[in-house]
Design goal:
Length: 163
Amino acid sequence: MAFKVFISYSSNADEQGVVWRLQTLAAAQGIHAYVPARGGGRPLTSGSSWTLTAATRKEIESSDIILAIITSRADRAVEAELSYAMGRKKVIIPIVYEGIRLPPLFDSCQVFWFSPSHSPGNLESQIIAYLKEQKLSKERLQAAGAIIAVGLGLLLLSSVAKE
């Protein structure tokens, strides 16, 4: 099963460049990164209504990790996606603009910090390295599960053959 990442981001133009680069770098590493469409380029403010589409809910549910780009201008789409992901007990990895205070909910999470003074390439490399590590862990767990299943199958066959 493929390793899947959902990238939650605001419709601000400065975030979109990072999102597309992350998606491209992830794909190069065999990681499927889903980026939901954001319409019109205007942020959805707290007064705007926003509901998740069935496709977005499905992508969140099937993702191994949720990457959440959090700036001071996080819009309703990000809030809705993160709320849904939390309800599904998904692993959320915040990518946070320096100076933003995260709620205590994220205290035990891996957090990546960024600012305009830092090289975006360095941040993206750190995130992709983290995702590769998580993908490898999932693959190892799946391989161990397969070996255990084969071993149990052989044990069952052996016990049936003895009878």
